[in-house]
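Need Extracellular solute-binding protein family 1's 3D structure for a figure. Predict it.
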Amino acid sequence: MKKRLIGKKTMAVVLAALMAGGAMAGCSSGSKETTAAGTETTEAQATTAGTQTTSAKEGQTPSGDIKPCTIKFRYWADNTDYSQLMQDIIKKFNEENGKGITVVGEESPWDGGAYSENLFNAKMGGGDIDCATWKLTSTPLFVNNDLLADLTPMIDGWDKKADIDDNIYEIMKKAGDMERIYVMPWNIQVLYVYYRPSIFKKAGIEVPKTYEEFLQAIEKCTMDTDGDGKTDVYGFGMRGAKGGQEPWGSFIYGRGGSLEDLTTPEAVQGMQDFIDIYKKGYVPPTATSDGFSEIIANFQSGLTAMTIHHTGSSKDMEKLLGDDVSAFAFPAGKDQWTSMGDTETVIFESCENKEAAFEWVSYLAAGEGQKMWCEGTGNVPVSKSVQETDFFQNNRFMKASIDGQKYAGIIPILDTTTEWISTLWPNTVSQALTGSITADECMKTLQAGLYQ
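Structure prediction for Extracellular solute-binding protein family 1:
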């Protein structure tokens, strides 16, 4: 097996990486804390290994080479509603899969990322968990310890493979060994641009369709509305604190740069755009220290005309602002990129019934389980057929997310990523914004820190 250049990590490093990677979403809902107190078996376990599923009881013969079996599935849920929803999905699958497969759900708390640490300990200790919910940041450690099953052959032979965008599979590969798929897509969060239609109307502009138009919209929406000589509305809510690397990445790609080499002229120009909108006063002066809470509060109060986040904040936005909030996918320039948050599933190499486990995780990825989970939690489905249903197409925030998934990506998962996200990026970008260093110097520092 080809190994990535990432060594075996201690549990402390794994936990730190997961917490740092949670800028998009710590858990599957993207916004809420885990409420489960500990690991427990769900009520859907009522059909035990000694009792076959409803279909088997009715005399149906399991199809293919899959024999009746029990699959142990570990997952986390962000709140009690999501916990019950997962139990309902497991129950429905057990009753309807027609192949004698009984999924036994074991719930474990996310606990700030300790979920993955505990899962690693369990598998290294010989635990009999067959499959589990997942975060991409865990993948290198588990792959380097030969704990994950290679899903590539099963996905290639899956009749619903084309129901998931190729870009999503590519992201799964990048998290593993760059060649194989060890992670099954489930649901995502895609960053998009929030905007206030009332401010756009006052500025006399339409939704920007290109990166250049987006920069122009930021300028035009920066206004002195009462004539006192002071800016009342800023065009963009910039996130300069930790977590800001995700929306920042869109500016880099807008000029044709990439996260693979931050020192190219195109990447440096994207950084210069970021600096310019700060220096020209198109963002609040507090932008260098603004985090999630600040950019959302500024947008909701009308201080900013646009900001960047995902569907995790959309319900509160709509509740507060009604029709005076909408969204669009980050527009294309020379290239196009937006950050993607993730929650997936995996099958462990130790699973004795991998085909049966794949029936379950594929049900979550593109079956009824996908529809039930994403409708119930408000996360973005990876299944194209589910995305095309009225529930998602009629939601403007979901639509913006779906529009962005084809070019969504992640910050490279490396040994250095945790420190880079937590400290190097915010400190270095702050220096660039305030003029202490140039765009070129900023990008050289960021490149050296990420790829040392």
